[in-house]
């Protein structure tokens, strides 16, 4: 078994600036969380890209399936009234 | 640099404070109080509008109202989660609400008498809330700020749907127009009270401004709302409830009547028309929903047991 097969896959999220959300930037292999955090620092923040890193085991992520997207998001498709632009108001108050 | 100096450095540099940063105890407490109060307001606010879902005048209005109430539930969740990052649990917050230790916006203690009130709530109450929330997008606590940004984006339809419903009534039959005027007369003043007491009377304002939890004072935000509402009332063709309202050229703002602060304090202290009803309903709904929460845990345990059995 190769090294990468023995190591676990982690997903890396970096907060680029205080106040912003952590964003997914990529993944890496590591022995455990601590090691993943160090690798992530070395790999994804070499040019001060971040002020905070999260690492999460890829296996722990439960994701929706893009193939099922149609029926998964279908209930929202016929509700245009959830959008502000749906309501037509007179010009003088349209900045609401 | 001491932790306290470092904290103040971040505040002064307009950097956000994040959950794992050191922060003064009173900053944490102030935030928990403000964010949980905000969350409770979203949740209690569902009651008056929820009551009108079955009485909306058309299928379209009903669908819109359901969407709005759904949003309020979601916004309550965002805010409870933001407060939880400060180390308080959801059940502690709900307990504080139900025992009256924590407050929610007094506006929801006013009775909702007609469909026009629902229109006025969307227009004026959500309108006032948006003025406050736009300002809070720049609050110093990261999770609160991000929650506000999300809420403002989603909520942009709330005020517009209310105004649209109000416009339909104001341009309708004489009876409908009278209903709209009546709703405006009753909700205008409590909407202005949503911004809280005068800055000079506000117990938490000064420290909150210093720490940039709040970015604009109660009185400044209220003025903004007063000014923006004037043309909106004109377009509706309704009478402005404030007879003393007058444009002040020098200030560049409208001068207006002072509010009935005795009423304000009385409603905050539990004596509004609906205070008891709102809390009783919240407690009843929470208790009646207990079997659902129990069922979730029971189902999870059953699933886990089945998995373990299959593995063995």
TrEMBL record, chain A:
Pfam families: PaaB. Its EC number is 1.14.13.149. It comes from the Bacteria. Keywords: Oxidoreductase. InterPro entries: PaaB, PaaB_sf. One of its GO terms (molecular function) is phenylacetyl-CoA 1,2-epoxidase activity. This is 1,2-phenylacetyl-CoA epoxidase subunit B. The lineage of its organism: Bacteria, Pseudomonadati, Pseudomonadota, Gammaproteobacteria, Oceanospirillales. The gene is paaB.
From TrEMBL, chain B:
Keywords: Oxidoreductase. Its EC number is 1.14.13.149. It holds the Pfam family PaaA_PaaC. GO terms for cellular component: cytosol. GO terms for molecular function: phenylacetyl-CoA 1,2-epoxidase activity. GO terms for biological process: phenylacetate catabolic process. This is 1,2-phenylacetyl-CoA epoxidase subunit A. It comes from Oceanospirillum sediminis.
